[in-house]
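queue> pop job 88
queue> type: inverse folding (structure -> sequence)
queue> payload:
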């Protein structure tokens, strides 16, 4: 079975890696890359999600600049390559590409109609931007969303249930911005969380009076490229 699908976007078509669970149709997770492209780590996360019963799809966010980017996080040359691509990345166009991916995934016969977003670093920022600009996203999860603070003016557009990992000492996300996001989360029943050893652990205060499981098995930033 093919491990890629083609998404028809605004301005062209692009590829997305797909991992299918054994039982179909299934809920889908659109996995958004870091600055290294849809590399081995992102594909592995998709495969892990498929093992957990989800249809996992990772779109090529760099397709407008350089299709098929697959960088190694352990080499300096690849880091610099990824940083150059990231600095030139058109985030607004990227939001449209992600929305097109969501629509394409939702229409797949393997999908039961439910689609969530999961992203790391650059992908985390794009999860936030996509979620605040589009309705109909069933859930959103992001880790270390650098530059998210620049878009907090759009936070009132966020309606999807979300899980967020904001490390205590993330220099690009000052305490003031964390407080603002937390204040919005209280109004919208967002679940604050922390990520450790491959598991998402909800803070105990948020588990009272809720049916949300205390542990959700998801790939975390501790096991991703960063």
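queue> result:
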């Amino acid at each position: 079975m093919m491990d890629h699908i083609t998404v028809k976007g605004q301005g062209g078509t692009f590829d997305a890696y797909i991992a299918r669970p054994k039982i179909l149709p299934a809920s889908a997770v659109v996995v958004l890359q870091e600055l290294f492209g849809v590399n081995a780590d992102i594909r592995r996360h998709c495969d892990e999600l498929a093992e957990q019963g989800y249809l996992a799809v990772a779109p090529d966010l760099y397709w407008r600049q350089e299709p098929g980017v697959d960088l190694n996080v352990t080499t300096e040359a690849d880091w610099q390559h990824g940083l150059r691509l990231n600095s030139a990345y058109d985030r607004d166009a990227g939001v449209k590409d992600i929305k097109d991916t969501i629509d394409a995934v939702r229409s797949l016969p393997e999908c039961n109609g439910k689609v969530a977003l999961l992203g790391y670093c650059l992908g985390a920022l794009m999860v936030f931007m996509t979620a605040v600009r589009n309705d109909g996203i069933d859930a959103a999860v992001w880790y270390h969303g650098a530059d998210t603070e620049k878009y907090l003016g759009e936070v009132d557009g966020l309606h999807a249930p979300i899980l967020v990992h904001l490390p205590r000492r993330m220099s690009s996300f000052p305490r003031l911005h964390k407080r603002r996001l937390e204040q919005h989360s209280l109004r919208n029943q967002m679940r604050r969380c922390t990520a450790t050893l491959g598991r998402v652990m909800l803070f105990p205060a948020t588990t009272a009076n809720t049916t949300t499981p205390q542990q959700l098995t998801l790939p975390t930033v501790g096991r991703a490229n960063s």
